[in-house]
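Lab notes, practical 5.
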Amino acid sequence: FLGDSVLSIVVSQYLFKHFTHLPEGELTKIRASLVCEKSLHVFAQKIRLGDAILLGKGEENTGGRTRPSILADAFEAIIGAICMDGGMEAVTKYIMGFMEERIESTKSNFRNLDCKTHLQEVIQKTSKVPLKYAIVDEHGPDHNKVFVAEVTHDGAVLGKGSGKSKKEAEQNAANDALERMNQAKK
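Output from the prediction step:
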């Protein structure tokens, strides 16, 4: 119970600080993908947690030491224990020791989630002029083509991005525009 809650808080705080351009719904989806049984099972395997847990004979005989649900629950229990013994600073350091690598390895899957919609919402707060996306370059063989897109607003280039599909290139262009806008605010 405690470990699950603490894990959710720590990951939520990290995502909130590092992915400021994403809307709440997207952050919620990302958090859910990071704090799921699959992730916790992988973390438990990294520390060989299955070798250290006590199991009944039935669980022992039916593969309980490698069962994802058991390992994920045991990993959450460790998080809860670290929080109780060392406080939030200690447990945050422990969790992020696992989670930062997981976030980095999956960032390309969620960093650009619906950036086009988010950019449009930002622009529409101050302008009625629509955004325009254009594929400005494509290169590579047909089976491995790379597309380059630009997003413009009222004639000005806001961002540029590339990808394996036109859609991905446009999302990356929107993400580039959002990052540039965030940098300009600082």
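Observations recorded by the TA: The chain is about 60% helix and 15% strand. Residues 68-110 form the longest helix (43 residues).
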